Amino acid sequence: MRGFGGSPVGGSGESGEARVRLPQLRLDELLGELQARLDAARGTRDRVHSLLEAVLAVGRELDLEQVLYSIVDAAATLVDAEYAALGVIGPDGSRLSAFHTVGVGEEQIGRIGAYPEGHGILGELIRHPEPLRLAKLSEHPASYGFPEHHPPMNTFLGVPIRVRDQVFGNLYLTEKRGGLEFDEDDESVLATLAVAAGVAIDNARLYEESRLRERWLRAMAEITQSLMSGADQAEVLGLIAERAREITGAALAAMSTPVKGTGTLSVELAIGQEAEAHRGLVLPVEGTLTGLAFAGGVPVSSPDIARDPRVTAGPPRFSGLGPAVAVPVGDPGDHVRGVVLLVREAGGTDFSGKELELLKGFAAQAAVAMELAGRRRDAEQITLLEDRDRIARDLHDLAIQRLFATGMTLQSAGRFIDHSGAKERVLRAVDDLDETIKIIRSTIFGLRAHDEEAGAGLRTRAVQVVGEAAPVLGFAPGVRMEGLLDTHVSRETADEVVAVLSEALTNVARHAHADRAEVALETDGRSVRLTVTDNGVGIPADGRRSGLANMAERARRLGGGLEWTTPEGGGTKLVWHAPVGTAESPRPSPGE
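Now predict its structure.
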């Protein structure tokens, strides 16, 4: 059939094939688009699955350090980043206190140097805790480059981590693999991980705090048991310092007590790194972290004690050490009995508010220990004084009266004796009784005079001598004391030690032209040793020796000796030693 104009009605064979091909092409396009959507859905499904796995992995850990590492590792995997880091914000909220990384080896980290503290882009997230995504890190106004040996980084994605509405730290991701940029999906995934990370961190911190409290409670129970078993103060203080060092992870623990009447503190014991440099030191209240805590009656902390401008007194003794806290022992409203100093290694974390709270409780336990030890000493002293008073009373009321009565009887009987020899013997016996009564009275007087004595111990007297010499010297000498000086050293020997110390420092002031001097006073219970070292001009070969002769004579009288040498750096080292003698009675001293 043909239409108008002779044209056939309907399409030719070619046009029919075109109509068949057109729907086929459209179907292929639809199928391709469907496949792309399926691939995208599968990718989204896989990514969601990876995110869920990461959330589970992060929430499975209870150790805080392991939790932080798991977060960084999961973040790098989820957004396909070559480098990842988690910066923990410090207590002051302005800098990073810890930095955990993935993608950079230990050797490379060592070449780069210290971890960042939160400047540049890292500080931008601290100041403005919101997600930050950059195609070119160096183009941001806050960026100011990388240190030497740092790997190149361009693309950047940062997300804050919040724990209970407080910013705990930030996740930093750089260098998306394949040269791509981080996109909105990466930011969304990382933000979701950050929420899960905040929950995991909070759980780990709660678990860590509960374990920490448990350890403090066990330590307090151990100290209480030690006290109840009658351990002496030195043993209890050593236990307190050791447990505090172990629980806080400190490298050094030192316990200081005040030297009565001198305004100084004596380091009674030190445990751990650089302990020898601290043990026995006598330090002023000003110029030390320990002194600040003692004077204020409140804990004083430092992010880096080796570089703290408040720590100026005493010899250098904090090499390799960093964060520190000094906690007073005792009631500020009453009096502070001592100070516990805890110091972590350089690069360690600062002492947190929670740790300070627990340390204050532990210090209160230490105060109880010192109070009980002091009460025990006082009770022993009262018992001793009461016993002496009873002896003196009995001697006076019983022995002397009977001896006097016997003497009177013999003297009366002598008048009835005719034999001259016998009469002489009786009178001589009466004289002997009189002498015996005098000796007993002298003994009674000595007992009571000793009971009423309130003289200072050797430690206090020595510190006072050094303090009096400082204005003449023009500087404060360093002082170190070790051993039970007030208990073991007799009064006679202590008097000689004080005289020799005064003369030695006077000689340094007059003749040495020194600007530094060190005093060491120590005893092992058998002998006492005084060492005075200066960096002056030394002892001239043809100089006068009168002062040295006096000191040598004092030592000789006690059975000791005196030696002096010239140290490698110049100056004079004088060593005076003598037996401790027989202490008439142990006297409690501050810190012993």
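The first strand starts at residue 81 and ends at 89.
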